[in-house]
Amino acid sequence: MPERTRRLFFALWPDEPSRAALVHATRKAVRHSGGRPVAEHNLHATLLFLGSVVESRVSEVATIGARAAAETLGAREHFPSSPGFVFDRIDCWQKAHVLVATTSASSGGGHFVANALVGSLLRETSGAGFAPDLKPFRPHVTLARKVAFLKTVLRMAPVEWRFAGFALVESRTDPDGPVYTVLQSYSLETHGVAEPRS
Fold first, then answer.
1. Does the active-site annotation cover 140?
2. The one catalytic residue among 44, 97, 111, 191
3. Catalytic residue chosen out of the listed positions 32, 97, 111, 140
4. Tens of pLDDT along the chain (198 residues)?
5. In this structure, what CATH number is given to the domain that contains residue 156?
6. 111 catalytic per annotation
7. How many CA atoms lie less than 13 Å away from 62 in the CB half-sphere?
8. Which of the listed residues 27, 35, 93, 106 has the most CB atoms within 10 Å of its CB?
9. Helix, strand or coil for residue 161?
């Protein structure tokens, strides 16, 4: 019998106030898009998508996340405060039929730290024989799925997301849509790693 697989990705997993602020700033745009809104508790910014991983190697992926966190702590020294992004525009990605919040600026601590983290995760996972998605990292938060073509430009009030860590997440597909479960949280503030969440 084939070994069970799990769909995994690494992501910036924001706190509840950050999610609530983004929902408030994008509510009208999501409603006018005609798409299916992403549940507030599912909002996140993907760092690296791994896809299907056999059950016996999930712990290996979790260890890779810990190593990447430790490596990225060096980059954090250049930015004493928690890095972050300012999501200030809404795009419709027509090929994927999704509405996303993106950033208009590419400079600053958030981009520097996130790119260092993504680079570390990509090197570690590729070196271990996994097959991560190689698309360049672009900070975004998916707001709605199954969106039709939009002719109007959608605007939003800027929302700042600061991050002090990231997470290893499992994605499952239910009839009502994706279900995300945080398997492991990693701190970018200290060398400690949080306990796994179920």
1. yes
2. 44
3. 140
4. 788 999 999 999 988 999 999 999 999 999 888 899 999 999 999 999 999 999 999 999 999 999 999 988 876 666 556 778 999 999 998 888 999 999 987 656 788 889 999 999 999 999 999 999 998 999 999 999 999 866 666 778 999 988 889 999 999 988 777 889 999 999 988 544 444 443
5. 3.90.1140.10
6. no
7. 18
8. 35
9. strand
